[in-house]
Amino acid sequence: MTTQGYNVAVVGATGAVGEKMLETLEKKNFPINELHLLSSKRSAGKEINFKGVTYTVKEATPESFENIQIALFSAGGSVSKALAHEAVKRGAVVVDNTSAFRMDPDVPLVVPEVNEEDIAEHNGIIANPNCSTIQMVAALKPIQDQFGLSRVIVSTYQAVSGAGTKAVNELEAQSQAFLEGKELEPEILPVSGEKQHYPIAFNALPQIDVFQENGYTFEEMKMINETKKIMHDSEIKVAATCVRLPFFTSHAESVYVEVDKDNISVEQVQEVIKNADGVVLEDDVTNQVYPTPLSAAGKPDVFVGRVRKDLDNSKGFHLWVVSDNLLKGAAWNSVQIAESLIKNNWLQK
Amino acid sequence: MTTQGYNVAVVGATGAVGEKMLETLEKKNFPINELHLLSSKRSAGKEINFKGVTYTVKEATPESFENIQIALFSAGGSVSKALAHEAVKRGAVVVDNTSAFRMDPDVPLVVPEVNEEDIAEHNGIIANPNCSTIQMVAALKPIQDQFGLSRVIVSTYQAVSGAGTKAVNELEAQSQAFLEGKELEPEILPVSGEKQHYPIAFNALPQIDVFQENGYTFEEMKMINETKKIMHDSEIKVAATCVRLPFFTSHAESVYVEVDKDNISVEQVQEVIKNADGVVLEDDVTNQVYPTPLSAAGKPDVFVGRVRKDLDNSKGFHLWVVSDNLLKGAAWNSVQIAESLIKNNWLQK
């Protein structure tokens, strides 16, 4: 480490996650020597302020990564596929926030509170999991460690910001039109580029990302496959239903789990969650205390409430898990991985 | 039956469900001789148009039910508790849309497509189930009949109209304020009369109705207990998580079920749903076809989509169930019960 810090590139700096990436670097006072803001050709030329200095966004090319030590990618899977290896070739370690390499057996998929040690195995690329997966495994890890975990069934309540800035704008404009008694033709959600679009304002769409041949969406399969990889247990049964909802920030999840041990109490589950890193227990129903998307927005933690025992299965528990999808679900987790690379001297292989 | 029809009272005629009750009576051309619109003292005096005739709403008292044959109650549990037996005493049969008598062993709890024959056992009162229960059991009944049913885990996505007209107004006003960058103090949701209120606009609230001692909400316990009663199987394992969301009409439900028979295909489940009364299969993910709250609003059916097999449990299936909570979830089902009373000569005991 130089005393001044590291040369850092942020790829996709003008996007919804890129913006949070810069906020997080600033908030965590990340040791930066040179900062390079990169984007598609279309967004190049924009100016962005970071710690009082104005940076001009440049088009990301293979040569952009000369002399970069850490590259944070969040510009879509195709950009990562085209440029991540180019960055690695030039000596950078890439933290990639797309689905491009997540299931690649040579690429660690990391939530630092869950499997930080996997970062040590990297070959230049570390993948940041899907937003809805990150918050769930952060909440499940302390349960797995203490009581074992055999089954997860999750139904999600996901914010539009997970679909990017255009989806955020669509919800805002559509909501306004609806309240004025007008209709605005849907153009983005559920999935930009798909044939059918449906209104999101005052609605719920049971489709996030494209459908796979097995009838599940890609988002659902990400939750299923990534959970097993991050938790190092291909035997955990995971089922997911992912739903897009009309709010801007934070994903919420109704999670049913079955643990291995019998006779575990709600208080024991609450206790391990309370003591877990990065997880905050907000669970006092007598006083109507539980997390909501609005209460979690802007905070880096994963919030858990509504912990209760299944009434039929003595090993079953229900949880309500909420986190800011752009922070812990994306930017915050990526920067945590970068910090771990530095702290553990894992940048050089 | 007189040739002119029946003397019908609608109790709670000025409420959100009462309004749909009148719309449904009109739409179904229900055989009415005299129509009596009743309400609390506060709403008495309002005028309501029905089939071109203006009716003045009167305060509901025991004497209001003299000469009434069918009384449709939807004015809250306390009104039903105070007046339903008074109506029965005077010869009326009550169809009650509150939770007052649902779990009373002497009161049939009925979704006509599921257990119409239970109406015959009435002692003057028939209970209309909770809105979120009705649509779920309508979708599950054909599955239970054909394949057996041992386990249900549901997470709901519920519209604000289930919490009444004030909640609808709150969502509308709060959404408008939010879009203007203002904040509006929450006063109604999640539960009118509770200590804490939270914003519903662009948010999700994991509380519907008050919390019980076991950590579940009353809404969740309604789904659990009512399902077993309606489906005549106290052994079915039912778990529920109920969430209020920022849309006006229709509840959606992510439902996981385990059937008794093995080797059942998705196509077989789709087929029995397609052939069930009152249930419409909208399930073609290749063309992004699935129901949403907006697409179901204003329609009397229960819509089912996203049918898929669990990837770990060969007897497990996932469904997405959507219906208009004020129609099939309340008014439509109540009027169906009243029609069945007439059709089957079950009015007189």
TrEMBL record, chains A, B:
Q: Which GO terms describe its biological process?
A: 'de novo' L-methionine biosynthetic process; diaminopimelate biosynthetic process; isoleucine biosynthetic process; lysine biosynthetic process via diaminopimelate; threonine biosynthetic process
- The protein's superkingdom reads Bacteria
The residues that hold NADP(+) are T14, G15, A16, V17, R42, S43, S161, G162, N325
Q: In which pathway does it act?
A: Amino-acid biosynthesis; L-methionine biosynthesis via de novo pathway; L-homoserine from L-aspartate: step 2/3; Amino-acid biosynthesis; L-lysine biosynthesis via DAP pathway; (S)-tetrahydrodipicolinate from L-aspartate: step 2/4; Amino-acid biosynthesis; L-threonine biosynthesis; L-threonine from L-aspartate: step 2/5
Q: Quote the catalytic activity from the record.
A: L-aspartate 4-semialdehyde + phosphate + NADP(+) = 4-phospho-L-aspartate + NADPH + H(+)
Q: Which InterPro entries match?
A: Asp-semialdehyde_DH_CS, Asp_semialdehyde_DH, Asp_semialdehyde_DH_beta, NAD(P)-bd_dom_sf, Semialdehyde_DH_NAD-bd, Semialdhyde_DH_dimer_dom
**What GO MF terms are annotated?**
aspartate-semialdehyde dehydrogenase activity; NAD binding; NADP binding; protein dimerization activity
The entry's keywords: Amino-acid biosynthesis, Diaminopimelate biosynthesis, Lysine biosynthesis, Methionine biosynthesis, NADP, Oxidoreductase, Threonine biosynthesis
Domain Semialdehyde dehydrogenase NAD-binding intervals: 7-122
Q: Which SMART domains match?
A: Semialdhyde_dh
Q: Which residues are annotated as active site?
A: C131 (acyl-thioester intermediate), H251 (proton acceptor)
Signal peptide range equals none
Q: Where does substrate bind?
A: Q158, R244
- The EC designation for this entry is 1.2.1.11
Role according to the record: Catalyzes the NADPH-dependent formation of L-aspartate-semialdehyde (L-ASA) by the reductive dephosphorylation of L-aspartyl-4-phosphate.
**What family does the entry list?**
Belongs to the aspartate-semialdehyde dehydrogenase family.
What does the subunit section of this Swiss-Prot or TrEMBL entry state?
Homodimer.
The protein here is known as Aspartate-semialdehyde dehydrogenase
Q: Which organism is it from?
A: Gracilibacillus ureilyticus
